[in-house]
Structure formats: C-alpha cells, structure tokens
Amino acid sequence: MNKRINLILAATLLGGVMTMLPTKWKAAIFISTIVALFMRYDFYEYDLRNNVLKNEWKLKK
C-alpha cells in the first residue's frame, strides 16, 4: 500500500482511539508528544550549530 494511505489509516485509527480517552489523558499525551518533539529539535539545532552531526543528518551543500 501507499505510504500516504497508511498514514491516513493510522491517523484515522488513532483519532478514533483518542476520542474515547478522557480529556486529562488526551492533554497528557499531546503535551508529552510536544515536549519530546521540541527536545529532539533542540538537540538537532544544537548539533547543527556546533557541527557535530552524524553523516546521515548533515545537509548537502
């Protein structure tokens, strides 16, 4: 199957599961996801500024 179709199916299934959760659980899941993504981006930007990126993360110039 196409990756886009798989993403749409996954989003639909996760959205259906999320509607059944209590509001506090939804908030906890979304906030923890946001914090994890921010931390990953912060580490990436720090490595980018200090030129300590691994080969797979370096941008071609």
- The count of strands amounts to 0
**How big a fraction of the residues is strand?**
under 5%
The profile of the biggest β sheet is:
none
Number of helices: 2
**CA-based shape:** flat
- Unreliable stretches (pLDDT < 50, length at least 5) are none
Rounded to the nearest angstrom, the radius of gyration is: 17 Å
Arithmetic mean pLDDT? 80
3D architecture notes:
This protein has 61 residues and is mainly alpha-helical. The protein has a domain at 22-61. The chain is built from 2 helices and no strands. It has helices spanning 3-20, 23-49. The chain is flat, with a radius of gyration of 17 Å. The two termini are 34 Å apart. The mean pLDDT is 80.
In brief:
The chain is mainly alpha-helical and 61 residues long. The chain has two helices and no strands.
Q: Which secondary structure elements does this structure contain, and how are they paired or packed?
A:
Layout: H1 3-20, H2 23-49
Structural features:
mainly alpha, single chain, 61 residues
